[in-house]
Amino acid sequence: MVNMPVCSPIVFAIVSYRDLIQQRGKEDRDVATKLLGQWTSFGLEDVQLINYSVLLDLPSSSPNTVTLSNTGECYYPSGQPCNKETQTHHSQDLLYSYAAYSAKGTLTADVFDVQYGSPEDLLRLKHFTNVSSKIALLKLGRMPLLYKLSLLEEAGFKGALLYADPCNLPKFQNLSNKAFMVSLNGGGDPSTPGYPSVDGSYKQHQPNLTSLLVQTISVTLVRKLFMSLEEAGENEVCQPLRLPSTGERKILTLNVQTQPTYKTISNIVGYLKGATIPDRYVIVGSHHGGLHGYSSEQWAHGTAMMTALIQVFMRKVKKGWRPDRTIIFCSWGGTMFGKIGSYEWAENLRKVLQKNAVAYVSLHDPIKGKGILYSIASPSVQQLATEITKNYKVTCLGTEKCLESNASSIQMEGDSDYFINHLGVPAMQFSYQDSTVLETESFLSEAVFPGYSTLSTKLDSSFSLHESITKLTGEAILQIASKPVLPFNALDIALEVQRSLQDDHQHVDKLLKVAYALRESAELFQSDEMRPANDPNERAPARVRMLNDVLQSLEKSFLVSGVPPGFYR
């Protein structure tokens, strides 16, 4: 194991976090400039501030509203009645309860409960009724939001009320009276789809990324609008909300207005050059800043951990150490609006990154609970993530037992998206989650709740969880950047393919035969070709370079086009 430096990163993380939260509510560029000064002062090489003019969909000057047509009762997304007093006292939360890049306008229509909006949910509904030009009451979660909205468009819906079922919300904070913000942008600047938003780029003005009028609402408002909502009574087991199948159908009027605006977002990118293989990159990513003019602190935790790692690494550099491969530290702007900063940077350097990027290590919102150390990794680095967690004494807080979690390959949050899905770069992340979180794709992270941003500080006031994540992440970076042979596992990719096919019982016999052949080839590769990883006598430079090129390209072989909206390959 490549040991982390003796100096603990916890002090650096605390100081950095307290410094960074002073930047909350400031413009993206202001936060980026602060980071630029910090990283440069630590001695990081070639630190760059890179600006992009991108299309953001910001709130309008007045909150969006939902009105009951038969009574004329008007509500804000949080469930509060429409009046000047409410708007004055809660203006920020009300304005930022919206779906960025939704269609704009007013729609009056019947409301139909589509639950989670799965293909099965919609087929059942369409079998009994005509949903053309109607409004869907849609739950967040289980599948990517963009995929579910595409199904609603196909079915003929014109609007969607989006909420989070109380059974899916975290148990340690009451969010039932909170509406939230989501972005309907799959990634990058909407005005430059598929190409970088650099000076001279042609801009396609696309303020709407869906034909649907989409509005986020709180559980409180759902209950006010649909008084006969079926849910649990005194039973302790949470029962999902569901509209009754009989009774009068509600007619609502949605008023959705937002303000498409070109704004400057900024990335900070700094390099720690490799000593022997400088043309191979280990990319470390977090994000800075929240919503424009919206006081959010959630971003500061991952950025503080990255800043602490930079400080620790640069202290080692001053003592003569360097990694073999180049480490690129990136703090992304515009993440809340659809991972804009990471997409634009990667699109601009696509050819270089396709050839040279080895791995992406994420520090995206790493503290969301205190019960489970949650490791998410691409198949080729799952074994590495598992070994790293086993070699550390895991810290958890509270009365619960500290539950171990093996590395999972479920869909990863945040800015790793482009690197995984467009470049085939393996990615990994360590985070703490609440013990009620299941190892499945919940997709609740697509929602940004107001007032939720300081939760991670309350969960980890001693910063011990921050220290654990920083050490684990640092160990992963060091192993990938410094081991002569990349610590990737080809067999885990073959096993992941085989498991995926075994879960699908429709016409997969031929595919399973191919998967078994892939597994046999991977086993042979692991036992024979991977000997240089364990035997220094076989580490001839040309052989090791060739082997690393193969390992680096493993996941690129599984890139596919035409993936449904919101899904990973």
TrEMBL record:
It comes from the Eukaryota. Residues 267-434 form the Peptidase M28 domain. Pfam families: Peptidase_M28. InterPro entries: PA_dom_sf, Peptidase_M28, Peptidase_M28B, TFR-like_dimer_dom_sf. Transmembrane segments: none annotated. PANTHER family: INACTIVE N-ACETYLATED-ALPHA-LINKED ACIDIC DIPEPTIDASE-LIKE PROTEIN 2, N-ACETYLATED-ALPHA-LINKED ACIDIC DIPEPTIDASE. Belongs to the peptidase M28 family. M28B subfamily. This is Inactive N-acetylated-alpha-linked acidic dipeptidase-like protein 2. It comes from Python bivittatus (Burmese python). The gene is NAALADL2.
